[in-house]
Write a structure and sequence with these properties.
The protein has 533 residues and is mostly helical. It has three domains: 17-212, Clc chloride channel (Orthogonal Bundle), CATH 1.10.3080; 236-417, Clc chloride channel, CATH 1.10.3080; 463-532, no CATH class. Helix content is 60%, strand content 5%. The strands form three sheets. Strands 4-3-7 form a three-stranded mixed β-sheet, with no helix packed on it. Strands 1-2 form a two-stranded parallel sheet. The chain has a two-stranded antiparallel ribbon with strand order 5-6. Helix 12 (324-337) packs antiparallel against helix 13 (345-363).
Length: 533
């Protein structure tokens, strides 16, 4: 009998089974002990940030003269970054890059710098948001924890995603959306499901910690009821109107992202010195206030101490100015392009809710419902995160509106093109099937380059099919092949020659094919050559 049980034990390989379960339990315990304190600290910092943000906003209303210090405040923050924070100026894009390719990490000084910078922006009247600050708080703390425990690159990626989830979930009070956002924002068309449990845990803990400090988020209500029975059925006509609005929301997100990057690029080219650029941006915002004749488009736009001002909450209660969305976009683009700190998301909420209110009036649809659709769908298009935004809409407005929310978000995502507010986002799955795909291209690369490889080698009608080759007015693209650290040294040494050109690097392998098969050798040429394509 004993021999029989021993044979059965061996056949079922129970030893390996229990060993795997033991290792899995230890891994879960280890991750829990790392994630929970980290996320709780992120939630606590977000609570302090939100409290400070409300205090700064109230001070701006109490002391209107603070607006005239906006150029000075912007220059001071920009000088602080210039002296101590050049490595963290990329903000959210730096975190996304480090998740894709863990390397030097995210410096911890990002947290205090972005905290101070964002509060200064809102104290003096800049038009910005808060999501960027929360994400950077989470990312920088997560990177510090990863360094403390000396985690491997794969674990660093997961912890950084969890930090993003904790910050997003805490600052908006939407933990489910925060978890999905951290997974979805990395690449267009693909979700990193490998980190879903850590991100969900971090987002929940971050949200709980923020609430534990007595922070309450602004509630938004949609009184329109699509179905009296409580079912998800929605009238086809209403869904059709939501789809039309989704196109407009996607285009609004596209215009915002493109305008932000374009104007920021113009300012950087003509005013390379950051403090001077921020000072000019402050002057432009003050000029816009005088031209428009109102301060309603400063700050977050969630609430206002001045009755009658357009606010996000007000767009859910009745008709509003038809062009509020465009004015808010203008103020925000000027503020962020000049280098002021904050985020894009809350202004996108304002832009979307205002545009949705206007479209609801134009299409004869419920104003509060379409304000809610715009609230999340413009963000979905600008950030390329339709699933996270759909979940966010359900968390904020209730599951009864899930169908029109999903329709608006996904159509906005399709219509926003291969652009977005996060240039380090990669294109994993193109939105159009006809689009050529390179696999690891970022939105930054997509903004300045396009495919000119047509599958030809040394022969073929290249000129007939690829007119770019014969066009002298197009930017030259230089391809560098070798190991990344050597390519970077080459670019530093030959910066004057390569200036004004699009640089594409490749880290290839040499394949030695013989009777024994294929042997892989990393390419490491002693001297790298740059050959124009």
């Amino acid at each position: 009998m004993r021999a029989t049980f021993r044979n059965l034990y061996n056949e079922l390989n129970l030893a390996a089974f229990f060993r795997d379960r033991h290792d899995h339990a230890l891994s879960v315990l280890r991750w829990t002990l790392i994630l929970v304190p980290m996320a709780a600290l992120v939630g606590t910092l977000c609570a302090a940030f939100l409290w400070s943000l409300d205090a700064a906003t109230q001070a701006r209303f109490d002391y209107p003269w603070l607006l005239y210090l906006l150029p000075l405040g912007g220059a001071a923050v920009a000088l602080l970054y210039h002296l101590t924070g050049r490595s963290v100026e990329a903000g959210n894009n730096l975190i996304v890059e480090q998740i894709h390719e863990p390397g030097g990490g995210v410096p911890l000084r990002m947290a205090p710098l972005v905290f101070i910078g964002t509060i200064a922006t809102h104290l003096f009247g800049g038009s910005a948001g808060r999501e960027g600050t929360a994400v950077q708080l989470g990312g920088s703390l997560a990177s510090a924890v990863a360094g403390l425990f000396r985690l491997d690159p794969a674990s660093v990626r997961i912890l950084l995603m969890a930090g993003v989830a904790a910050g997003f979930g805490a600052v908006f009070g939407t933990p489910l959306a925060g978890a999905v956002f951290a997974l979805e924002v990395l690449a267009v068309g693909r979700i990193e499901y490998g980190g879903i449990i850590p991100c969900l845990l971090a987002a929940l803990v971050g949200d709980w910690a923020c609430h534990a400090w007595g922070i309450h988020h602004t509630p938004y209500h949609i009184t329109y009821v699509a179905s009296a029975s409580g079912a998800l059925f929605v009238e086809p006509v209403l869904l059709f109107k939501a789809a039309i609005a989704g196109v407009a929301f996607g285009l609004a997100g596209l215009v915002f992202a493109e305008a932000n990057h374009a104007f920021g690029g113009v300012l950087k080219r003509h005013i390379p010195y950051g403090p001077a650029r921020a000072a000019l941006g402050g002057v432009l915002v003050i000029a816009l206030v005088w031209i428009v004749g109102t301060r309603a488009y400063l700050g977050l736009g969630v609430w206002s101490a001045i009755p009658g001002d357009p606010t996000i909450a007000g767009f859910f209660t009745g008709p509003a100015d038809r062009w509020s969305w465009a004015l808010k976009m203008l103020f925000t683009v000027v503020t962020l392009s000049a280098g002021f700190k904050g985020g894009e998301v809350t202004p996108l909420f304002f832009i979307g809710a205002a545009l949705g209110n206007a479209l609801g009036w134009l299409l004869g649809a419920p104003l509060d419902l379409f304000a809610g659709l715009g609230f999340i769908a413009v963000f979905a298009g600008a950030a390329n995160t339709p699933l996270a935004c759909t979940i966010m809409g359900i968390e904020l407005f209730g599951a009864a509106h899930a169908v029109p929310i999903a329709v608006a978000c996904f159509i906005a995502y399709i219509c926003s093109g291969h652009n977005g507010i996060y240039l380090s986002q990669r294109i994993a799955v193109p939105k159009r099937a006809s689009r050529a795909h390179t696999g690891a291209a970022t939105l930054r690369m997509n903004a300045v380059a396009h495919n000119t490889h047509y599958g030809y080698s040394n022969h073929g009608p290249v000129r007939e099919n690829g007119s770019e080759i014969a066009d002298p007015h197009l930017t030259m693209c230089v391809e560098l092949i070798g190991q990344r650290h050597e390519l970077e040294r080459f670019c530093e040494a030959h910066g004057e020659i390569l200036g004004g050109k699009v640089i594409v690097y490749k880290h290839l392998e040499h394949w030695s094919i013989g009777s024994a098969g294929i042997r892989h050798e990393d390419a490491a040429p002693a001297i790298l050559a740059a050959e124009p394509e």
